[in-house]
Automatic annotation (TrEMBL):
SUPFAM superfamilies, sorted: Metallo-dependent phosphatases
Domain named Calcineurin-like phosphoesterase: residues: 183-339
Key words, A-Z: Membrane, Transmembrane, Transmembrane helix
Biological source species: OM182 bacterium
Keyword Transmembrane: yes
Keyword Manganese: no
Domain of life: Bacteria
A Pfam family the protein falls into: Metallophos
Protein name: Metallophosphoesterase
GO molecular function, one term: hydrolase activity
Record-annotated membrane-spanning stretches: 49-68, 74-95, 116-137, 143-162
InterPro entries named in the record: Calcineurin-like_PHP, Metallo-depent_PP-like, Metallophosphoesterase_sf
Length: 396
């Protein structure tokens, strides 16, 4: 039997969801209000100041520099450059604050446009760097370089939107002696309803139905906004198989308890440091996401895992794979990384996570990291794909 002895902590007060200036300042104030632990408060404050400085620098490099440079090449006036450049530079901060206060079609559109600009900003920056070299060697006129930079960046952006709109089905074939019969299930991860629409979820569910899985496993970040109504998730009821879900970091950042209630009302089974036995030769274990890198090790130690049947572990982050193997887990499935989602961020994410995307084989178990079914922020993928993962596990 797999018996939970402790509950995962549902609220992590020191987490930061979307790194905007207002939220960093809010986190600093919250840390100052805690009694005692003055050294810890000072350490947190320094950390937040560093993050704020990094945020400002990123806005200047990715947003301000290319926009103002293009305006200069096009010989716009100082006033026109400010009118164009300042809103774009502050677009992420303004759009996220406005969406927190006002949730209307207009503000959603503004947020979408701000996210589109954020998505193309790396390509815009790279194209401006290239244009700088061409202009320096007098190989191209500045105004021509500006126009080409904009056209190139927007073209890449539109391709990214198309690429993110149609999740592909990735098939993973594994063998196991722990199952009595073959096992077939689907994993989706990082759907990000809130950033993504109800229509997108309907499309994903339609694809899953065609695969005819025994169950659906959702490995976190299914919802990333507060106030998502159950009606926006009702397409889940179209599936005639059990749905299992674990909490990701974005659910923790929002109205977690309300999210749980809405999902339960739709028949979703939420695993929080607990197990489910959909058949006699299978145990599904779910653990809440947490910033602690030892979360998997700690939570598995509280569970009594049956070593004689196939063990599937659902955990949002691709961390703790070694601990999972030691605990007797046969397959661990995760998400979170998005495979960087947009080039060149996948290069940065690769440095942060040992397991980035795809199948990793260990000595006694396997780990699969989904690139994510949806997207966060810009509704685009450049250098990555949106995926629905189908697992076929053959009895040997």
């Amino acid at each position: 039997m797999c018996i939970p002895h402790t509950k995962a902590n549902a609220n992590t007060t020191n987490s930061i969801c979307r790194v905007t200036a207002s939220e960093i300042i809010l986190t600093i104030k919250m840390s100052e209000q805690k009694p005692g632990h003055a050294p810890m408060r000072k350490k947190n404050k320094i950390r937040m100041i560093i993050m704020l400085a990094a945020l400002v620098l990123a806005h200047l490099v990715f947003f301000a520099y290319p926009v103002f440079r293009i305006c200069y090449w096009l010989q716009f006036s100082s006033l026109a450059s400010l009118v164009i450049g300042l809103p774009l530079t502050l677009s992420q901060i303004l759009s996220r604050w406005i969406m927190r206060v006002f949730k209307t079609k207009v503000t959603r559109t503004l947020r979408y446009l701000a996210d589109f600009f954020m998505g193309i900003s790396p390509m815009l920056l790279l194209s401006v760097f290239c244009a700088e070299s061409l202009i320096f060697f007098k190989l191209v006129e500045p105004n021509h370089a500006a126009v080409c930079s904009v056209i190139f960046s927007f073209s890449i952006g539109f391709f990214g939107i198309y690429n993110a709109s149609f999740p592909i089905v990735r098939r993973v074939h594994l063998d196991s002696s722990m199952t009595k019969t073959n096992l077939r299930f689907v994993q989706i991860s990082d759907v990000h309803i809130g950033s993504r629409s109800r229509k997108f979820l309907v499309k994903v569910i339609q694809q899953i139905r065609l695969l005819k899985p025994e169950f659906l496993a959702i490995t976190g970040d299914f919802i990333d906004s507060s106030g998502i109504d159950a009606n926006e998730l009702v397409s889940l009821k179209q599936l005639d198989c059990p749905i299992y879900l674990v909490i990701g970091n974005h659910e923790r950042y929002e109205d977690l308890e309300q999210i749980i209630e809405r999902l339960k009302s739709l028949g979703v089974i939420i695993l929080r440091s607990s197990c489910s036995f959909p058949r006699e030769d299978l145990q599904i274990i779910g653990i809440d996401d947490k910033d602690d890198p030892l979360q998997v090790e700690k939570e598995l130690a509280t569970l009594d895992i049956d070593q004689n049947i196939f063990s599937l572990l659902m955990y949002h982050r691709p961390m703790g794979f070694e601990s999972a193997q030691k605990a007797g887990i046969n397959l661990m499935i995760s998400g979170h990384t998005h495979n960087g989602q947009i080039f060149p961020f996948n290069l940065i994410v690769r440095g942060a996570f040992r397991y980035l995307a795809g199948l990793y084989r260990g000595k006694t178990g396997n780990l699969y990291v989904s690139q994510g079914t949806g997207t966060w922020g810009p509704t685009m993928r450049i250098g990555s794909v949106s995926e629905i993962t189908l697992f076929d596990i053959q009895k040997v």
